[in-house]
Design brief:
The protein has helices at 4-7, 17-20, 31-35, 98-102, 109-114, 122-125, 131-142, 145-155, 160-184, 191-194, 199-202; strands spanning 44-47, 52-54, 61-63, 68-71, 83-84, 89-90. The chain folds into 2 domains: 4-123, no CATH class; 126-206, no CATH class. The protein is 40% helix and 8% strand. A hairpin with a 4-residue loop joins strand 5 and strand 6. Helix 8 (145-155) packs antiparallel against helix 9. The protein contains 11 helices and 6 strands.
């Protein structure tokens, strides 16, 4: 007789720990979720190249060598915006992203294999060469996350000049975001997808606090 405990596929315990640690990064196979309205741009955040972020799979803080588009959290917390705490359930479970489908607590090999492969970027979602794309490219050139991170790292050890440069850069970026909303009418909730997190949030891991 076959022992069902040996052959049965691992079942989700619905502990919510993976959801509470942060929303999943999106991959090429998740693109239909965006095209058909299951996941909106207002639900996303872009982590730009050069940012220092916490990698759940890799563990610890890492500096991104390529951008990541992921499901945003609720407010400023890390928990996935689609996780419903009272019911310990996913609000989009039937169409959940690839990383969520791959994660099995007892065996993380599947998500480790997927984690760095075929990640979606803004270039996969927007039309390169279009008006929105030109603004995204301008923002990346003018307010690069790697520059802000380098300035924050220097400011964190008490250097005044990098802090002054960072404050000036952050204020200019805030003005850019406001002007973008005024001219396009695009919802403020979509800004973190188009332009990534504000520079004040990019600098937070270094203990440098700037006003939003």
């Amino acid at each position: 007789m076959i022992d069902p405990s040996v052959t049965a596929s691992p079942a989700c315990r619905r502990c919510g720990q993976c959801c509470l640690k942060g929303g999943p990064a999106l991959h090429r196979e998740d693109l239909p979720l965006l095209l058909h309205g299951g996941v909106l741009r207002a639900h996303l955040v872009t982590l730009r190249r050069g940012e220092t972020v916490h990698e759940n799979v890799a563990g610890g803080l890492v500096r991104l060598v390529a951008e990541v588009v992921k499901i945003a959290g609720r407010g400023r917390g890390p928990a996935c915006r689609f996780y419903d705490r009272p019911t310990q359930s996913c609000q989009i479970h039937p169409s959940r992203p690839a990383e969520c489908r791959s994660l099995i607590c007892e065996d993380t090999s599947a998500i480790e294999d997927l984690y760095q492969r075929d990640r979606l970027t803004r270039a996969d979602i927007l039309a390169p060469g279009g008006g929105l794309w030109e603004l995204v490219a301008y923002h990346d050139r003018t307010f690069p996350a790697d520059m802000a991170s380098d300035l924050a790292r220097q400011a964190a050890v008490g250097r005044d000049e990098p802090l002054e440069s960072l404050v000036e850069l952050s204020r200019a970026e805030e003005s850019f975001r406001r002007a973008f909303m005024e001219k396009t009418g695009i919802d403020a909730l979509e800004l973190d997808f188009y332009f990534g997190r504000s520079l004040s949030r990019v600098c937070a891991p270094f203990g440098v606090r700037l006003s939003d």
